[in-house]
């Protein structure tokens, strides 16, 4: 059975909702095992055994979250030259635009020689004040459907071997 690894970090719940929606979409492909793992608990061995990846993060100070960055730091050299060509996609819960966070993940994925299967899916909450930034987030159903669709797409592609 092939595996899709979804590694995420969430502080206010928005990214978690997005990752869970993507996992639900991916699980519609019953022949693909979906692992939904918090970045703090994810280990390099999971990267090595997975057939594809979804990386989900909030935008923090125009960058990926520290916990996702820590996961990449802990895993980068263990996975280097061992996961080349595998597919990945990115989910970002942004307060402003999320593009710098997406670019940061793309650079890491380029180093691993991963294959991006879709542009980063960025959900912008427009949270700009301290109160709004720290407030629990609720992602709109239409945006969650986009996350589910991305999860289903990558899982189907992994299953069919088209990536």
Explain how this protein is built.
By secondary structure, this protein is of the alpha/beta class. The protein is built from 6 helices and 6 strands; from the N terminus they run βαβαβαβαββαα. The protein is 45% helix and 21% strand. Strands 1, 2, 3, 4, 5 and 6 form a 6-stranded parallel sheet that branches. The model has no long low-confidence stretch (mean pLDDT 97). Strand 4 (87-94), helix 4 (99-112) and strand 5 (115-116) form a beta-alpha-beta unit. The relative contact order is 0.23. The chain is globular. The chain has a single domain (2-160), classed as 3-Layer(aba) Sandwich (Rossmann fold).
Note the quaternary state here.
single chain
CATH arch. level architecture:
3-Layer(aba) Sandwich
> What number of domains?
1
Provide the helix percentage. 40-55%
Order of helices and strands: EHEHEHEHEEHH
Q: Indicate the low-confidence ranges by residue numbers.
A: none
Compute the CA-based radius of gyration.
15 Å
Computed structural class: alpha/beta
Q: Compute the average pLDDT.
A: 97
Count up the helices. Answer: 6
Strand content: 15-25%
Major sheet, described briefly?
A: 6 strands, parallel
Quick overview:
The protein has six helices and six strands; from the N terminus they run E-H-E-H-E-H-E-H-E-E-H-H.
